[in-house]
Design a protein that fits this description.
Number of strands: 9
InterPro entries: HSDR_N (IPR029464)
Protein name: Type I restriction enzyme HsdR N-terminal domain-containing protein
Helix content: 10-25%
Structural class: alpha+beta
Order of helices and strands: EEEHEEEHEEE
CATH architecture: Alpha-Beta Complex
CATH class: Alpha Beta
Shape: globular
Largest sheet: 6 strands, mixed
Number of helices: 2
Number of domains: 1
Pfam families: HSDR_N_2
Distance between the termini: 33 Å
Strand order of the largest sheet: 4-5-6-7-8-9
Length: 149
């Protein structure tokens, strides 16, 4: 797998048949290791180990409906009241972050209404604070640390 612009973590990779698997600390099971999963696991550990987000407030691949279509979010962090707070869309490192990717996350967030949105391909990371009253995305220079929220 590619080196990413995220802190390394102690990952557990095993092989099962033709597939490599990576242990997911939230789902507590091995997941097929794809390039996107590699980014998601790195970003998950970054949220927990470096930005100090509680594991108990994070979900992976949460299902949501938008215009009667079933969508899945890569990572979603909830506030203490159980409301979506930070939405993270992960792409494989070779996938550029384009306007289409930003639109995809914006569509997901119309239903979830998370205050912060992050898009990452493991190399580039973009974070915005969302103002739903004005329908504006304010770019942030850094992803917020949990204790500063």
């Amino acid at each position: 797998m590619d080196a990413l612009n995220l802190p390394p973590f102690e990952h557990k990779i095993t092989k099962s048949g033709a597939n490599y698997l990576i242990f997911d600390i939230l789902r507590r099971k091995n997941i097929v290791l794809t390039p996107e999963e590699w980014v998601r696991q790195h970003f998950l550990h970054y949220l927990i180990n470096d930005l100090l987000y509680p594991k108990s407030l994070i979900s992976i691949e949460r299902g949501t409906n938008y215009n009667k279509l079933q969508k899945r979010t890569d990572l979603c962090v909830y506030d203490n009241s159980g409301n979506p707070f930070l939405l993270v869309e992960c792409k494989a490192s070779y996938v550029p972050i384009t306007q289409d990717v930003v639109k995809q996350v914006s569509v997901y967030n119309q239903t979830l209404k998370a205050k912060f949105v992050v898009i990452t391909n493991g190399l580039a990371h973009y974070c915005w604070q969302v103002d739903f009253d004005t329908r504006q995305f304010q770019p942030l220079l850094e992803i917020p640390v949990y204790s500063q929220l």
